[in-house]
Amino acid sequence: ISRNKSLRVLKLNNNSINDEDLVILITALRQSNIILDLSLANNRFRSVSARLLVNLQSLESLDLSTNNIG
Hints:
This protein is an alpha/beta fold. Helix content is 26%, strand content 13%. The protein has a three-stranded parallel β-sheet with strand order 1-2-3, with no helix packed on it. Strand 1 (9-11), helix 1 (19-32) and strand 2 form a beta-alpha-beta unit.
């Protein structure tokens, strides 16, 4: 992800992504900074790690539905 220069949409729904996985993903996304649409619906992360997504400045659309971030 961090080396890809053309990827604009990333849909990782239903992948059992947990807090540790999300931190790794966010690190890669910060390096590329080109993802416009990110969908992480129905995974297993919580609000603590989800807050890190705020720093992804390129995002125009973000789907976090059906995660335990209440």
